[in-house]
Amino acid sequence: MDGSSIGTSLRHDWKLAEIEALFNLPFMDLLARAHAVHAANHDPDAVQVSTLLSIKTGGCPEDCAYCPQAQRYHTGVEAQKLMDVEDVLARARAAKAAGASRFCMGAAWRGPKDRDIPKVAEMIREVKALGLETCATLGLLGEGHARQLKDAGLDYYNHNLDTSPDYYGEIIHTREFEDRLDTLQDIRAAGLKTCCGGIVGMGETRTQRAGLLQALANLPEHPQSVPINQLVPVPGTPLADADKIDPFEFVRTIAVARIVMPQSIVRLSAGRQQMSDEMQALCFFAGAGSIFMGEKLLTTGNPDVAHDHALFRRLDLHPMQVEAGAHEAGIVHAGITDACCGGGCTCAA
Ligand code: SAM
Ligand code: DTB
Ligand code: SF4
After folding, report:
1. Cα 245 to Cα 40: distance, rounded to the nearest angstrom
2. Which tens digits make up the pLDDT trace of 82-94?
């Protein structure tokens, strides 16, 4: 076992062949290694709980082949306008009551217009004031947007690479892989934490899954949060009939993500409604440390909250806590950040 697979060392020079070699390990060996990395860097019984809300649904001009919200596909998702702040807040309060510590607001935009930013900023300020971590996923950001969102109190920005650079052109034609990298650079420069991952089960090869993880791990900083989505096939999208990925191959993808980005929180993201409890347990063992909880993702279904609470009990998992008071000063100590705000918060760090 090389040093990178057992400890906490962070590498940004992963070769594709090294990542493929991890994928090709015997399944049990891969899981044992991934779990060792997980336990060395995280509490393996703690799961970060986020809740998603689509604050602007449908009507998107982009052509992402997986997405039910692209205007050009006939998926039955109707275009709506940006939600009102009060309605967003009601959903955030409910998410908190159900046990979420982070609230993620998604918009079906190629990117926000300048005029959209003040209203989204108000949502962020108000959600943060409830004591939740905040995350937004609004697409490609323009000049100054990341800074304005950060100033409003945004903690995380979700922007996925989605697939390997060499498969990207098969899935999306209305923007380039490099456009995503540019927005990720803006996010880091503004001091936001990055939530960045991808989708598996879109007909890509194992080498291309390795290519996605290589692109993520070789970013200038590992994303603090790495959502691994299993494609939710939606009728009307070009990927509606994509071959379903072997569940064990999905678990391998979680395990390899765990090993190559040891300090990141890997999220078992979209697709849980199509997974058995046993498969999810394997994903948690392999290093998944976060989920979306709530009956809906953005437009598609997610397991019932009661079912997830029961699953946590059956697997002796507990939600990762956000420490009381810390959020007031804008810094949250949930085992994933290490700096104290230095004033205003009540934590002991
Ligand atoms: N429009 C923004 C963007 O594309 O960055 C934000 C919202 S977009 C829906 C956020 C992410 O959802 C996508 O990057 C993709 O990874 C994920 N996603 C969308 N449709 C999906 C599906 N059918 N299955 C799995 N993940 C999906
Ligand atoms: C992410 O990686 N997955 C989430 C979140 N980030 C925004 C979105 C999943 C969407 C699944 C399809 C839908 O519900 O529309
Ligand atoms: Fe639009 Fe985002 Fe869906 Fe692509 S993934 S079609 S950018 S909402």
Report:
1. 29
2. 999 999 999 999 9
Question: What's the Cα-to-Cα distance from 176 to each of 18, 141, 146, 244, rounded to whole Å?
Answer: 26, 14, 20, 26
Q: Are the CB atoms for 285 and 54 separated by under 8 Å?
A: no
Q: Is 139 near ligand 2, meaning CB less than 6 Å away?
A: no
Tokens matching residue 233? 């096939």
pLDDT single digits (tens) 233-264: 999 999 999 999 999 999 999 999 999 999 99
| Nearest ligand by distance to the CA of 70 | 3
DSSP per position, 195-210: E--EEE-SS--HHHHH
Instruction: Supply the residue whose CA is at minimum distance from atom 14 of ligand 1.
Output: 160
Composition of the chain by helix, strand, coil, percent to 5: 40, 15, 45
Whole-prediction pTM:
0.92
Q: Answer yes or no: are the C-beta atoms of 342 and 330 closer than 8 Å.
A: no
Q: How far apart are CA 210 and CA 17, in angstroms?
A: 9
- 341 phi/psi in degrees, rounded to 5: -70, -20
Q: How far apart are CA 277 and CA 254, in angstroms?
A: 16
Output the CA 232–ligand 2 centroid distance in Å: 9
Is 345 annotated in the active site?
no
Give distance in angstroms: CA of 346 to centre of ligand 2.
34
